[in-house]
Amino acid sequence: MSGPNIALPGQILGASSSNELGSGTHLHNDQLCASISGPILTSKPSNSSKTSKAPKLSISRTTGNLLPEVGTTILGKITRTNPRQANISILALGPTGEHVCRDPFPAIIRQQDIRATEIDKVKVAESFRVGDVVRAVVISLGDERSYYLSTAKNELGVVMAVSEWGNQMVPVSWREFMDESTGAREARKVAKPV
Amino acid sequence: MANDAETGPGLTFPQDTFAKLTPRPYLLAHLKHKTPVRPNGRQQNEFRQPTINTGSLTHSNGSAVVRVGDTAVVCGVRGEILLASDIPHPPSDDLEEQDLVEELGLVVPNLELSTGCSPAHIPGNPPTSLAQSLSYRISAVLHDSHCINPDDLRINYTEPKTEDDLPDEPPKEVTKAYWTLYIDILCLALDGNAFDAALLAVTAALRDTTLPKAWWDPDRESILCSPVVSDSRSLRLSTMPVASSFAVFSTASHLKKREEAQSWILADADGFEEELCDETLTVVLNSGPSTGSGTTSILKIEKTGGTYIGKDVTDLCVRQASKRTSDIKTALGNR
Amino acid sequence: MPREADPSNNEREFVLSALRENVRLDGRAFDQFRDVDLAFGEEYGAADVRIGKTRVMVKISAEVVTPYADRKFDGIFTISTELSPIASPAFEVGRQDQTEILLSRLLEKTIRRSGALDTESLCIIAGQKCFHIRADVHVLDYDGNIADASCLALVAALMHFRRPDVEVHGEDVTVFGLREREPIKLQMQHQPFCITTSYFDGGEVMLHDASLLEEQCREGEVIISINRFGEVCQISKYGGPPIDGLSILTCTNMALEKAKMLDKVVKAKLEEDEKKRDKGGLMAELRADNEREQG
Amino acid sequence: MGPDVVNHPLSRADGSTVLSNGLYTVIAGVNGPIEVQRRDELPEEAAIEVNVRPASGVGGICERWMETVLQSALKSIMLVHMFPRTLIQITMQITKEPSIKLRRSLYDFALMPTLFNAAITCLVDGGLPLATTSTAALAIISPDDQVVLDPQEKEIASCKSIHAMAFSANGDQILTQSSGDLNHEDWGKVADMLKQACIAAIGPAGEDTAMSNGVVQPEPWLRQHLEDEAKSAVRGKVKIEAQGRSREIRSSSAANSKDENQPDSAT
Amino acid sequence: MAMLADRRRMNAPPGGTSPPVFASLPEAKLTKPIRTRNPDEHRKIFLRTGVVPSASGSAYYEISPSNTPRQTLVPSSSSLKITCTVHGPRPLPRNAAFSSNLLLTTHVKFAPFATRQRRGYVRDSSERDLGVHLETALRGVVIGDRWPKSGCEVVITVLEGEEDGWWADAEEGGKAGSWGMMNVLAGCITVASAAIADAGVDCVDLVSGGVAALTAERNGEGVLDPCPSEHDIKAACVVGYLQSRDEVTEMWMKGDAGSGSEALIDNAVKAAVLTRTVLAEAVKEATEMKIGKTSEAAVETTNTGKGKTKDIQMTG
Known about the structure:
Largest sheet of chain D: 5 strands, mixed
Shape of chain C: elongated
Strand content of chain C: 25-35%
CATH architecture of chain C: 2-Layer Sandwich
Largest sheet of chain C: 6 strands, mixed
Helix content of chain C: 25-40%
Number of domains of chain C: 1
CATH superfamily of chain D: GHMP Kinase, N-terminal domain
CATH superfamily of chain C: GHMP Kinase, N-terminal domain
CATH architecture of chain D: 2-Layer Sandwich
Strand order of the largest sheet of chain D: 1-2-3-5-4
Largest interface: B-E, 78 and 68 residues
Oligomer: heteropentamer
Number of strands of chain D: 9
CATH topology of chain D: Ribosomal Protein S5, domain 2
Structural class of chain D: alpha+beta
Number of helices of chain C: 6
Number of helices of chain D: 7
């Protein structure tokens, strides 16, 4: 990567007729312009796709993605629970949390979004406890305050939990964690370990 | 390791993510490693090396910019004049000379954190408890160390002889006014241990301070100052207080047995470490103003939160602080 | 923030129907105060008042300052009322709530603006130096009627306080420590007391010294500040349903009676305190006599 | 000689005490666990708020500093994890100060042990669970290098250095505030003496230290006070339970804590 | 006086203080500085981003002071030193209503030691004014709809402000226009643009600030980047300018420009173009550094170092 071609905000990257709009860019008049500073990435149109022939121009974000969007996988920590929902702070974005958020984003997992099956039987208290680290996916931007998340997939749910006695626990089934030093088991919506 | 997304999300996290999600285990893992290193790459007892710049502010009588790691503090000292006749309640005669600065309020330090120096300190808000405590502690160190000589702040006037005076009596010298030093400390970037950095900035700025020559003008009945540089004199600090702070990271919990708890002393904790440490210790050593001069004495030992730091640990930290103090004095002396 | 818990409907009904049958929950007569207790601290100007469970402490302090530019011949007198959670968790630190604002306004009107303290006597050198007398009102326990209690404590503390003596030589002022010279009493011009009358059923039932529960159930209140000579300093009625104008007169008459009662309490306790301070001293006897003549 | 402690002088606060020694009188009240504002809420423990109110004048930056120090010291011995997402609010009103004017930091340091002890006794009165009993004491080093425990105000005014420390029953150092002109050895000496004094105040737990050095041991004032308190609490328990309106959010665990109101080490 | 005490800060002594008054001595006669640059020349700007690591974005801006050695204690003039931090995009405060756009807030504060007269800690009206001007300059630049329900704070601390004129004139009761504020605003716009770019917030362009003035000395001829103590300014104009779109986002004109107002604006734009070169360079340099760092980090993680990269593995 010697001397990548760096664009600055406002820099014209090409005509909009011959290029596809990628991330970190915007349109001005008929021109495609950069909106952040970073290296220019050109993705060749795949041959199979017939509809778009033009190459897609985007600017790589040196800062990483900044905000959760619908469909983003996130990692966060449960901050409070009640029978209808669990409150969670989004701490990192991406399946392995590649992008760490500077400020936690408040979010909610509603009771009906915890599990895919037997939705009506799910109990929040048996799925999450305050302090659990949870992997979830953003399903909506939510209300003025919180994003709405879902853990209704096998690989989503609690990934790390601490027992009542303050010990790190290990998952022992799809719905239980175990404290190895006391042997006590606690109910959780466990994310399937991979 | 960050790229195993294709095989599905596994439970390996990049470092930063690990630190964010479970900060305690993250720090613990570093400290428990067979060659323990703090996540910031420092040894347990290693302080960050400060860089000090002085005299860069045009409108201050003395100034300093201190950068300690990612904590940056700028301090400006400005002298203004307090007329003795304006003091509503003059100090009583039995006041000890060295307490005059405090009694009259001639040193006014204020530390401001609401400069956007970290996401937690956004402007437009009044000073937080933290900022207020820091201002208080700095003023306490300046007063208790008696590092500012009250004579440096006096503006005296020798009254002309009148007929009532006895001919042999020496001319009467009265203090017409005092310099008041406004010490404004702005924290521009905060990554832990604001106190050590702020106190260092204050002492560096005070050492850099020069006050113009000032005299009482009986005709105008006011104080005049000389703009000539060669007339001015610098403030001579009689002592040099240097602070060294430590934080304790501990696995102690009210849910666990006492014997199981492990604790580590971290010198000069950064912002990440500070969040995880409840117990803190600050040692302020006071010594002669220049490198190697004078004897070092302990000015302050302040510890709160937690139960790890007892007498022995304090002893250890005082020794580390003593080494730290000579390092700092060398850094300042080289200016 | 936890608000003051409202009484339940049953509780409220109970209080009200008892009142309609001329009964207060604690068995007092309608115009009867709870036990009034006044104690002074070791130092001058500290008064601790208890009315039932309500407890207020006032501390007076004095400082030499520069007078306001537009009031050169006056000293400065300020009253600070900050309610803290020690009295009730409903009071938040650093935020004024309604109770605090009303209380501070009331004391301001009753004591400061009625000229109870002669501020001219606090002047040392006109335009240059004067005393700043500061009263800090600390409400420690809140079981209703803090207005009457605070005002009583404030008046008692002001009467108990002694400021340092001063000597003026030209422009120079010497302030004497409490041990160097006998400190000096403040000049009070009169002693007004706040008497709160709580009313129920549009004024059918009038109570003195309501407890917190009674306050929470009342329709409104009339606060009258009055001295023992029957001079009214202020009357306030903050909203609430209208009441018959004539009943204000009744309130005033009743308030006068209570003010006289409180005045007696203060005088008696001051005398007691003074005797305790220099036991058997002739000076003390004389001073006490003088005061009786003045009073 | 320990300080005078009056139990439960206030009716509204959940726990309260008046504590006076020769220097200061402090009236302390605690409310808690009570509802907490969202911005102060902690997901896994109770938030602790300490308010220090001067006898005259409004609090300033030195009160904020004292609050910060005390908050952090108290937090380390309070079982905050028992009441997550609640608030424990301690308010201390100074009602009497030394009669002579002390320099600011001497005044503050001398006040610190009084505040700490007042806070501890009022927490016990309020039935809030503590991990350990602890107490604080004050000492100075005089100009002729003598350590003076529980100094008089005149001795404070002329001291070379001043020391406020708090220790738990098992000798853990909870709080240290030392200031002045001092050296290593003197500080160690003061720390030892204060530790002994504190442990002695807590009572027989530390028998081996009680007789050492031939120093006259102060009476275990804190222990006596806590025992009296516990006895009267048992007597008054029926009354407490019969008492009228219950508070809005007193969680069941909070109610339980009334029963276990003795800190474990005091039993 | 004692009543006005701020209980959250250390306060001035109760008697109140006044700034020193200097005697006019022949051996320390101050001379008004003279402009040595060409009229169309800008002073040297120092601009660097990423100075506050805990912020999302940050930048420091300085107009280097002239290197004349100080003979008197009274500074003849001062120059600009500004720091800016950007926090965000981040969640809106709890009480804020839903917003589908990025909520941009600006905050400008002078340090107490920034000017000849010591300033207070509480924002005054001129600082609030500057904040509003800055917000106007930035609002159209940030692509707000990419950041729903989030906020972004731009915080500026002026460590040293430009003077409003030759201070000795002001002392003798001469005119005291607040010309310095215009240079400060131009600096704020440039430094904020750098910090926003550093934070990676989408913008339509970099926005740079520029100042131009009409002075009494050069009849009709304008100067770029006037240093107020060197001139007798009649009118001045500051713009926030988007060069690649040739758009002005903010304009503030003061004084009596007469018929020269259009030329004045043109000159301000010219000044902004000059500033932009520095701005673009600084942003580019910082971006290159960042790319360097990420690729470095990538190398580091593949060579899994000791203890530094500790993976936790789930068992079971």
